[in-house]
Amino acid sequence: MKPGDLVSVQLNSPREQVWGVLTRLDQSGTELRGIELGNFEEWCTQLAKGGDVELGPSTVFFPAHRIERVSLDEQIGAVPSMGERFKQITGKEPRDLLAPRTYMAR
Length: 106
Hints:
- The structure is a single chain.
- By secondary structure, the chain is an alpha+beta fold.
- The protein has one domain.
- The chain is built from 3 helices and 5 strands.
């Protein structure tokens, strides 16, 4: 995994899961710009409708001791990735709304 990849991060203490674009991953922890999975569908719906968007991504650093797993956002069989789901709902590329421009170059 490298900066710019879409990932899902599972955390403990407290237990939560966050999806977004990876900005940093090293022995000290993980930084990403994303949104808690519990808010994902609502955020997508707000973006698709246009107008006021009450939810949005934030850039967060999680220390290594909180991280259970970092997973690349990939399609599994017929199940679309979160990024593909985002695009289906909003019609927009997730990195366009998540990633700082420095992580967009690929």
